[in-house]
């Protein structure tokens, strides 16, 4: 058993109007995951790069729901290459669907609202994820690019993948 942080998708796509932190928290609880999950999004309060605690950014691998490695560590997502990952490692939703192949997500695009370095893009994060307005825009990344932080702009009316990152590691007292 090694320490790792799970990257998991919400069970269905969302427009730019999403209470993402709440959804991540709730869906993780529903499937019995005990750690806290936060949205993989820049918000008006926080840049995406700082969602994971400083102490956990360098040594914990980022894995999918089945423990397969997506990134060597959190920091490596934000090294400027757009969060390049192996597209042969699936990203699963909390209910176990592969977002890359499952028809629940017709568009294989991930909302993030961030620069390639994980800094919030206030002009492109759907008004801090409070609007699905067709005229508003959000930064997102098509998964086929093999990047989580590819820099594409979409209307907030689109229904895309929303990811959640395990935020705090709760150690087992039995250890």
TrEMBL record:
Residues 5-170 form the Collagenase NC10/endostatin domain. Pfam families: Endostatin. InterPro entries: C-type_lectin-like/link_sf, Collagenase_NC10/endostatin, CTDL_fold. SUPFAM superfamilies: C-type lectin-like (SSF56436). Gene3D superfamilies: Mannose-Binding Protein A, subunit A. This is COFA1 protein. The lineage of its organism: Eukaryota, Metazoa, Chordata, Craniata, Vertebrata. The gene is Col15a1_1.
